[in-house]
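Listing S7. Sequence submitted for prediction.
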Amino acid sequence: MQNILIPTDFSAEAHNALEVALQLARRTGGHLTLLHVVDAPAGSTMVTTGGVASGSAREGVFMIELLKRTKQRMHELMAEVARMAPEVAVQDCIATGTVNEAVLEVIREQHFDLVVVGAHEHAPTLHLFTPDSLAEHLVRLAPCPVLTVKHPAPDFAVRSIVFASDFSPEADKMLPSLRQLQAAFPEATLHLLDVVTQPNGYAEAIDHIHAFANRHQLPAYEPDVFNAPQVRLGIPRYAAQNHADLVVMLTHGHTGLLHLFGNNIAESVALQAAAPVLTLHPQ
């Protein structure tokens, strides 16, 4: 987690993400890139002089003024970061285009290890009836891990890491990320959580957790099985009840109708849980 991207729209939510990203960079020796996307009119693109390559004259003047204001706000944010964490290397980036697609393009081009993104905490079903947020879009489609942050965290400390899974063989793909987190936060307790929807699933779930831990020789962990009517509801409830500082999950991105009916649990948890949620796709 050395090369970290923080998309910002200069909102309070984006600032929450920045606070967490700075703490991670301090822990890992990483460097940050602050990205702002200017939502440009169709057919307009930014050039090196800050002008506009095409579009009407009126749109061109508007874009030039918008880019000037954006650069000023970015300059102010960079100065704030220098005061908050002078030891962390930070650079800025301004792109134009549709926000969701422009952020994904930057991630792919610059090969980021992690994206830290701010979001609103959603009620369990609210996000099904609202337009996709950038956070939801990135959890679904970003090729690198995404850390979703929903609350201020100026002193982000991780004492409790919850890895939520069914501990099938696919969960083995999380091991490199889990080990990175344990190295960054050696004082944290690792909770291995399986949520079951039927009480008679407890024994099998515990067996899967221990088998996973033994398979990877995890030296210390807390096995936890939590009962809930739905897995996507149980994980945020468990995290809240046990004061988790970080939730970690695999995700399977979907688009279109498959997204609506595919029941992406990690995507739901990333938006519902109060704690920061780290999601990544299986490799």
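Caption to Listing S7: primary sequence and predicted structure tokens for the chain studied. Strands lie at 3-7, 31-38, 90-96, 114-118, 146-149, 160-164, 189-196, 222-227, 246-250, 277-280. The chain has two domains: 3-149, 160-280.
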